[in-house]
Design a protein that fits this description.
- The protein is built from five helices and three strands, in the order βααββααα.
- By secondary structure, it is of the alpha+beta class.
- The protein has one domain: 3-Layer(aba) Sandwich (YefM-like fold).
């Protein structure tokens, strides 16, 4: 039920009670000026609003790219991946299994 400000003042307890059922709109000269909601609805809205304000991963990448471009960096210098060969645990496991299979005659 929409309430005008005078009604809402006079029947404030009723307005608050009805917020448990649905949000209560308060108007001043046919313009909405406030909406009273239950604490649960407000908590849900607060969570939604916080999620909307979080920066997405793509936005973070775009911000980083823009900062690098602004700093005059168009590319990052990366070292060769072949410069440091790390052992491959999967290949080592396969080699160990093959060696133990040959030792047992399988």
């Amino acid at each position: 039920m929409p309430w005008n400000i005078a009604q809402a003042k006079q029947q404030f307890s009723e307005v608050v009670r009805l917020t448990a059922l649905e949000p209560q709109a308060i108007y001043n000269r046919d313009k909405p000026v406030a909406i009273l909601v239950s604490p649960d609805e407000f908590a849900q809205f607060s969570k939604w609003r916080a999620l909307q304000q979080e920066t997405s991963l793509i936005e973070q990448f775009n911000e980083g790219r823009a900062a690098l471009t602004e700093a005059g960096l168009t590319a990052l210098a990366l070292g060769s991946r072949n410069a440091t060969q790390r052992p491959n645990a999967f290949v080592q496991m396969l080699n160990a299994e093959a060696a133990s299979g040959q030792a047992t005659g399988h």
